Amino acid sequence: MTALRGLTTVAELAEAGLVPEAKRADAARVAERYAVAVTPALVALIDADDPLDPIARQFVPDAAELVTLPEERADPIGDLAHSPVEGIVHRYPDRVLLKAVHVCPVYCRFCFRREMVGPEGLGTLSANALDAAVAYIAARPEIWEVILTGGDPLVLSPRRLQAIMERLGAIAHVKIVRFHTRVPVVDPARVDAALIDALKASGKTTYVALHANHPREFTADARAAIARIVDAGMAMISQTVLLKGVNDDADVLAALLRTFVENRVKPYYLHHPDLAPGTAHFRLTLAEGRALVESLRGRVSGLCQPAYILDIPGGHGKVRADSTAVEEADDGCFRLRDFRGDVHAYPPQAD
Ligand code: SF4
Description:
By secondary structure, the chain is an alpha/beta fold.
């Protein structure tokens, strides 16, 4: 496996021309608080002369991250409230998240788990904690799907991934294993034969959910990495975060969604950005997001249409942001009805 080392400090980013001198001090303050990493594949993709470059905006620390609003939360989607054992999030009856690792090859500036991921984050599950997490899944026949997320599970070595898959493979009631990853676009060389083999388990169906936010992320190397996964018999779906200054434009979104489909990745989720700390500069209003998604309806094929999703703050699950479960109230706020029928204000009251 040939994964190249990326840039992980502001000094390295500055040396690569990605942080101008005038912004260096603020970027360093951001880096003290939130993890930083940009892979060589992305460094090569960034136009350092464009102050509005949509790739740089996703990965290069910015002074705006130093501003935390009252409604922003350290755990915006409520993982901790639904974590019965370390490494497991069990929000819905038939599926669990298995967070085996809290490290990523890149650190997205808008990350909803930014308080948990990174070298200083929650780390990798110990052998004992992994035993307990697997035992939790094995003891609950209602768990049909296990979603490996984190962190990015594809930073684990093929040997470790294979060991996890062998253990999940031995649990008869688990039918689907899903990986959430950014690796095929941010470090495509990592997707080699050994890694691909490690994602499979006998008798299970593997889905790979690819997180990408801009059509430029689909370089020739990224497209080839995606093709290797699909050609190996795994289904791929997409995840995109709707981000101001990155993809809050109908033409960009249409191009992105078409690019997914052209590469055999079925558009799945378009996430309204979460209330993660220091990310207000990325957030559209719900009304703006709804108008943008509406504009895609006649514009791109049904194959290209993702579900526009909002994670209800506090861990109440997902809601279709363009459905009748989301109602605008007289005060300009929204009321969100979760899958249990409970109603929540959005934005929520500050803690
Ligand atoms: S890859 Fe995912 S978990 Fe990692 S920093 Fe980006 S959004 Fe967060």
